[in-house]
Structures are given as structure tokens and as C-alpha cells.
Amino acid sequence: MKEYDLVNELGSQNWLDIVAGEAVVLGHLFHDAELVMRGTSLAAKLAEVRFDDDNFPKVEAEALNLLKVLDRAKKFREETVFLDEICEYEGGNRSLNKWEYDLILAKGVYQIQMYMPEYFGERLSDEYLSVEAVIRESYGDFGKFQRCDKSQEYGGQKMDTTDYYTNDGRLVCRRTDFTHDCGWKNGVSINYYIDDALQAVETWAKIRAILGRRK
After folding, report:
1. Residue 85 and residue 208 in contact, taking contact as beta carbons nearer than 8 Å
2. Nearest 5°: phi and psi at 21?
3. Is the pLDDT of residue 50 over 90?
């Protein structure tokens, strides 16, 4: 995904630039890889395709679609309650290469989010494996869920999504692995969905016990 310096390069000359820049900024803030990738892809096309080019209407259509995605993401954010977080800071900002954990409530469903913005190669640390084991333990046999895989590309950046569903179609887990535009860094976000409040709180307490003094 393109880093924050891209946003500084985007001017405010027209609404297209604004949509691209907002998608990148909010994508980082919301931990939404698709927003960042689509914003980056739109910005690249705006730099390549002139307004009088025959292909420019396609770029405008892409911006309009992204605008709809942005609106949905902002509305979801407004309806989300952030209950707790566990993360580390470096230089006053959240670390980009250490796991971050969030407990949220969105539309009546609790979510435990695990997020690693940037890493090189594999990132299966002992911490990650321990936390994931605790979460999956709360579901019982995780292998009973139906798995659905999907891959998407935006401007050469790849995003692989793996969803797990119950037999009645309820989403249990969504894992998103994505690449950065530099080609040598990756990122991952994992959302676990829990309907039961007590289950969510007890699982979160176990995660806090594993991570100790991390804030």
C-alpha cells in the first residue's frame, strides 16, 4: 500500500484528487487495505491519464465507485464503538511493525481485531500464535466452519481475503493479507466476530493476560 507521503503529493485541484487522498488516509486509519489500495490506484491513474483522454471517463467512474465505498466505510465507523485496544507506540505514533489488537462493537456484534500494518516475509510470531489460539479456542472446533477465499488486485497491489462462515451463513472470521506498493512489504488484518458479549469479554481478558503490560 502507498504510504502517507502519497497524500501530500495529491493536490486539492478537483474532487478526484480529494477522493483518492481521503481513501488513503481513512484506509490507514480504519485498517482497511482495500480503501488504501483503491485510493492509491486512483491517484496513479489521475497522474497518468489526462482529462481530455478517451479513457478519462473510466477514471471518473472508478472515483465515483470509490466515493460510495468511502461513504459506507465512514458510516460503519460512525456506528462502531471502540471498547479497548492493545498496541505499542513509537515516537508518539502507533507502531507499524507490531501487532495491534482492538475490541469493538459494531451493529450488535463484537469484533476482536488483529492488525499488522507492515512486515517482511513471514510474521508467525509466538505472540500471534498464542493470541490466535485463545480466540479460536472460544469457537470450539474452528475446522467446522466453511471457508471462502478471494483475491483482488488494485494497481498491481494484491489483496487476499479468507472468510469463515457457519452453516447458516454467519461470518465468523475474515483474514485479509495485502501487499504494499513498494513490492517488498506486506500487511495483514484479522477480524473475529463474536455474537455473545460474555464470550467476547472473557476472550479479550485472556488476550490481555497473554500480552501482559502492553498498552
Report:
1. no
2. -65, -40
3. no
